[in-house]
Amino acid sequence: MKLATWNCCGKFGTNLPHLLGEGVDVAVVCEASSLPEWPTGAGDRAVTHLSHRVTPESPKELAVLACAPWSVSRHERADSAPAWTLPVRVDGPVPFVLVGVWTVVSPGQPSYVDQLDRAADWIEQLDTSEPVVLAGDFNAPISSSQSQYRTVVSRLEDLGLVDAYRATRSLDADESPVDPTYFHHWRQDRPFHIDHLMVPSAWSDALTVQVGDFGTWVASRRSDHVPLIADIKDDVADV
């Protein structure tokens, strides 16, 4: 299974075929827009999808999609989840719960990291016998939120989740990622790693992670973010 997250910078209709062209099976897409018609995946694979606005002021949406034989459906407890999340059930060879997240700060809203903490609150109330993935544009960490972010990550680890990128790169807690996922103002000299795939710790030995390159995804003006894609072995152990 190829599991991805990408902030498409609003150009969803133009950009979605690029993401599907990577052969993704399941994806969280941030800053998406409503589409009159959804394309099929590679090989004419049927696409199921859900999306919603995370703030009433913005037409941009948080979307989750899957290509057959994978499919997504709204989680039965989604109504109790924070507005900046989109919890779904993913059905397929390895069923799991996927919580898409796109943190957006607006007046009256918690900070980026506080929003992640609220997402962890919701995950904590789930049935712990089923695999859970938290994925999306966290807008964190940055230098000013690093300490608080580490606290939330520690909490997610207590819930059985690990950062897929960090796990595959064997990074210690104080080591910074070397592969950016976001380039501020589209500038290669302003890199940040703020998009994440938090996956069950039992999956950490059964995956590889690739990060999109600046030239293909940013210099081409597709987005100021690049996709983060985890390739998870089909025989990954159930959690």
Automatic annotation (TrEMBL):
<dbReference type="InterPro" id="IPR005135">
    <property type="entry name" value="Endo/exonuclease/phosphatase"/>
</dbReference>
<feature type="domain" description="Endonuclease/exonuclease/phosphatase">
    <location>
        <begin position="4"/>
        <end position="213"/>
    </location>
</feature>
<dbReference type="GO" id="GO:0003824">
    <property type="term" value="F:catalytic activity"/>
</dbReference>
<dbReference type="InterPro" id="IPR036691">
    <property type="entry name" value="Endo/exonu/phosph_ase_sf"/>
</dbReference>
<dbReference type="Pfam" id="PF03372">
    <property type="entry name" value="Exo_endo_phos"/>
</dbReference>
<protein>
    <recommendedName>
        <fullName>Endonuclease/exonuclease/phosphatase domain-containing protein</fullName>
    </recommendedName>
</protein>
